[in-house]
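Q: Hi! First time doing this. I have a protein sequence and I read that you can turn it into a structure. Is that right? Here it is:
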Amino acid sequence: MAVSSRVIRTPDQRLRVFVSSTLQEVAAERQAARQAIERLRLAPVMFELGARPHPPKDLYRAYLEQSHIFIGIYWQRYGWVAPDMDISGLEDEWRLSGDRPKLVYIKSPAPDREPRLKDLIDQIRNDDNVSYKPFTSAEELRDLIENDLMVMLTERFEMSESAEAATVPLPVLPRSNLPVLASRFIGREAELAELKRLLAETRLVTLIGPGGVGKTRLSLQVAHGVLPDFADGVWFIELAALTDAALVPQTIAAVLNVRESADRPLITTLIDYLRDKRALLILDNCEHVIEACARITTALLQACPNLRIFASSRELLGTADEVAFAVPTLGVPDVNRLPALADLTQVEAVRLFVERAHSAQPNFTINERNAAAIAQICQRLDGIPLAIELAAARVKVLSAEQIAARLDDSFRLLTGGSRDALPRQQTLRALIDWSYSLLAPAERTLFDRLAVFAGGWSLEAAEAIGAGGEIDAFDVLDLLMRLVDKSLVIKEETLGEARYRMLNTVGQYALEKLRESGEEPATRSKHFDFFVTLVESAKPHLLAADQAISLNRLEVDHDNLRSALEWTIRSKSQSALRLAGALGRFWDIRSYFVEGRRLLDHSLALRQDAPPLWQALALRWAGFLAARQGDYAYARVLLDDSLTLSRGLNDQAGIARSLNFLGYTAFSQGAFDRAEEFLQEGLEIFRSLRDESGLASTLNHLGSVAWLRGDAATARRHFEESLALRRKIGDEIGVGKSLYSLGGVAESLGDYDAARRYLEESLTLTRAMGDRKLVAYTLAGLGEVAVEQGDLAAAQTYHAQGLAAARELSDKVGIAYALEGLGSDACVMGDCEAARRYYAESLNIRSDIGDKEGVTACLQGFAQTAALQHLPHLALRLLAATAALRRQIGVSLLAGEQADFDQRVAALRSQLDQAAFDAEWAIGSALTFDEAAACALEPLTK
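A: Yes, that's right. Below is the predicted 3D structure, encoded as structure tokens:
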């Protein structure tokens, strides 16, 4: 087919930028290049697959001939070589680019770069007339292209065309005084897009936010992007240095080069100058001259229809047509659940830290070793850009780990900002000092007092703690709103309620001011009083129909509860026992076992001469949480003390609850007779008190005793009675526990469909209510059902999820339980070595915590692996040991479990003669717990 001789025109005839690259491998980068070019109102010229009707070679050559600037983007592929060519179209485009201005960008890393592309890149690097830069992401490339093209345009060069084309002058950019952006802008794509939209739709946009959040940098980035839209200029007006508000008009006039006339007001002269101009003014740092800025913006916008104004301030100007844009802090990682390194490096705050740290120390990189420390830095600094940049500058003398460790003294650490920054922006302290100096006396007092809050607070809490002296409770709302307006306090909505908080850095500053005022002890005391009352009023609701509301209310103030308790402990106050005991049920339901035990232990160290009721309650919950983690010996000591105190007080409810917890501890250790004694005594007391919650809990524990003894019918009757009571009172967490228990009974009886229904309903409830321990157990239970139904993949998933959940809680019993499930899965799959590893870890845990019934379960697992490895003597010895040890502690297998056990013994009997069978059975039956464990764990020999 003959080649067309027609002239092929590019899509439009503006200044044209030709983009050369392979297509699919850098698709995202090509899109980024297009965006950068179009932002400057230039025309991107890009060959695309399927562009017709012209042959590809003719098309890209014609487009290139009509273009003014050449951009090359290269990564790993050299590109396709056509049959009539000895080089690829990529290299052909480079050779044909001639003397056009060239910008070349090379993506790294490129471990699989093709040899011919390496040769081409070497040629480019050896060309002194070519600008080439490395990049790593599409976002970085977009910024590089936009900035590099802008530099070219500001030089106002003109390109020489071939003899067939006319000379096309480059457009002259509008005048402006925008400062050159020395560092690369990181993230905030959504904010940039939204601000550009707002600027197109409204005439006054005010960026508000705390000091250091990046209001100025964001406004400048937007300004550079919209520069071509304003024929009469974009003008940056810095107001921070002003000490006299009357000088605002003069400062604007000086930037615009408008001369003041002696016979007319300056504002009139400014209006006359700007009346017909399409311009953008950026009024930066308005907070200390807020009223003057409000007056002049109102006057200018009313008289100048084509004028737009960007303002940045700690608070709004308060004019009629103002649109507020709250500048958020940068996104920060969750330090408790760090993502993979590749994902962590995409978090905005982390990207900023790494970028600025690399600028300060070129060999700095983020890696697996320092990733957690960098995440901690970003989180502790609230994603405040200035604070992160100041911290990153310290990598010249400190490692990331050292910086993270020193952040408790952040105001001294975060110094030494850029020399060209305003003095108040060179240290974090100076920045907040600036805001604090603008507060009225009452605002300062409330600001200081709010420092005692941790994690946020409600209006009710602010009124209780903030009032006093010159501040009435009625005044707190107005003062709080003023602090919000000045960006020193952040207002949010949680659980349908307005809540407030300070950034960590601001809160640290406020705490210093509170300590300087001498008010900290009194304010802390009011803080404690408020939150202990909150917890005690919530206690009756934690096992009632509205328990979810009460639990969430305590959860949202968990940081405050922790802070109040830790302060009383540090103060050696016996009041710590009161709050710690009141928090016990919350800690249990939400599985804060480690934290709860630690704080209860510290509180109990102060128990001497404390009210016996406080002591008994704290001892009871300390004992129960210890039992929940499998620390049974310590639990028994604490619970015995609690029971003794409650009997001495004749506190019937306290006696019954201590007995209930002692029963739980006893049956968890396999002491079923003792457990039943405790539980039956407690049951009678709960009946006399008509305490349905206590009855339900005790019945469920009695059901567990019956189940472990092999009496499935009695167990199910107790569990069903418990479930009915819990449904009646609306205790959904209790409902989840009873459903879990019923699921276990159904599974043991072979009714797997019913078991799955019970367990899945339990899992849904417990996840919704936040009982993470029961979530772990229910997952393990679903794993057992999946094994019985032959779904090994699902079983492994459930058991692995259960193990992860238990490890997160440091729940020893839950960890052991999940490990046994994984061991059973491995046995079914024939992976005996993996099974032995799982059982060994579980056995060690069970032995450490004195869980004798759990030890027997592990021994039976080891017996199964021995049988699969053709070691019948060892398998039989371990089965004999489990049978004897179960009789010793009074544990019976359920019917289905006993049938399975008998079948295994029979299989081994068929492999051994009678004498060998009798000998091994006798040896195993005589083993103690420790001897049986040692036998299971020793290396295998046939």
